[in-house]
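pls ignore typos typing on phone
adenosine-5'-triphosphate + seq
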Amino acid sequence: MKIYLRLLSYLKPYWKAIILFLLCLQITALLGGANLGVIIPFLKVLFSHSSFSTVTDTSIPQTAGKIYLFLKIKFNQFFFQVSQLVALKRLCLLILMLFLLKNVFGYLMNVISIIIEQRVLRDIRYQIYEHLHTLSLSFFHKRRTGELVSRINNDVNTVKGAVAIDTLMIVRQAVQSLVYLVVAFWAAWRLALLAVLLLPSTAILAAILSRKLRKRSHRMQEKMADITSVLVETISGIRVVKAFTMEKDEKRKFRHHINEYLRAHLRFEWLSSLAGPLTEVVACLAAIIILWYGGIQILETKTLSPERFFVFLAAILSMISPLNQISKANSAIQTGIAAGQRIFKILETKPEILDRVGAKEIKGIYQSIVLEDVSFEYETGKPVLQNINLKIKIGEVAALVGPSGAGKSTLSDLIARFYEPTRGKIKVDEIDFQEFTVASWRRLIGLVPQETILFNDTIYNNIAYSRKDARKEEVIGAAKAANAQGFILQLPEGYETIVGERGVRLSGGEKQRIAVARAILKNPPLLILDEATSALDSESERLVQEALKYLMQNRTTLVIAHRLSTVKRADKIIVLENGKIVEVGTHHSLIQKQGPYQRLYEMQFMT
Ligand code: ATP
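k done
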């Protein structure tokens, strides 16, 4: 219920539209009821044409008031104090008008409800996306991309059952049923009372069904997330799939997941489809009891006129369809609640990296970045970095080296503040950098990752990604400095060429140079660079190295080094092993020491 109410709270901004919707709803329902009410005079015109007022109205209380009497008299005058044919014509016209109006308002109602529904879905989608951006890297590491895509696409779509059309549909059907019920009471109150007493049996049935439905829908949506995950993974990793000829296995995996989904979906649909007929059968049983009791009233006790019984029946039968729809809408709501549960789980995830209360903006780095006894663990009890003490002075190039898994990326991620140290402090100019806002710190950092991520946009926009306000000359200047101008101008549309997702139309070296141009344009005081390990041909390598050299000039740089030229150029080499610093020094001093660096140098850099 809590989740349902929370979902409904998304409707709040659209209260005006909802009032309009409810108005249309009311009118449609009333017109539906009026259509039934017209049956009596219609039958009278056809079969007797006696005055309407001569029928004893025992079921209408004396307090019904003057308005009712006035309307009745007018109605009688209009339809009964004329010839039978004229009355028939007028009645036909009245019915046509009532139906026409009912459908016009019905249409309006549908349009309004769809507008509300789609706006709410848009709001929820945006809220999740917005929230995702506040979450820390660890959140994304723990989840599959496909699962998140599925939350935003499929779950949000499913939630609509609970937030809009179906909820509003329940209101509509309930109002409609209520109107029919009033008509039924008006026609034959004893029978209507009996009907009301029989109703709860349907309600109990609906409650049992909805619990089961919610469980099944939850499972169905989990399976959909699995499918999306496999899709995202295999499409983005298609190169690996093809290279290892894993197509058959991937197809098998996908088939398994879609079959699982099919099973889960069918299990849900079976139950969902059963809900309608089951409620209808129960309702029908009730109807038979009423029919029998009504028949007795007409035939034996003579307390009911056949016309009234006919109207009562029409009203009750008309109620079956809305009630049926209520039970159907209920299953959509249950599915929506299940989806809402998963959506709220994401929305309730707290970002791990948060600004401290009173955090200040940092404007620049003027002396040094110091790591004081820093330790870090991703999972409790499994330290990845231990007691790191390190000072990087302003303008220095510090190269991190070490075997795979030593903790180099983790250390650079800590400095970029993607994670907070488990113990120890990172200080910038003697101040704990947690005193500063995350955003202002990141503005000082230029990050060049190992694998360049290019967005599906033009070359120009990919370079200007970090500085949307950059002038054209600045963007071109950065591209030139990164040795990228040459190849860019050879592309079909130069800077306006769209690079595909992940820049598939560029070579490895070209992509790296775009990444360097991006960092040059941002011109950050601190550069965190993860050198690409993949070998480039010598010309491409030369161009990239030149670009990097330019980028590192007069800049504090922390580089995860994989190339000899980089370590030789570094002011300080930090050798990491098993999460600990084992050596610090320049290339020459460390070679002379003949320690861990010497061994690493022979194994890694000599090649
Ligand atoms: P490489 O040169 O191969 O990239 P590295 O020196 O950069 O290695 P890290 O990526 O920092 O090493 O990893 C250090 C250790 O932390 C490894 O044992 C790794 O398995 C572990 N690790 C890295 N990322 C995570 C994570 N998100 N969750 C849990 N453990 C992690």
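The pocket of adenosine-5'-triphosphate is lined by residues 141, 378, 384, 402, 404-410 (CB under 6 Å). The chain has 23 helices and ten strands. more later
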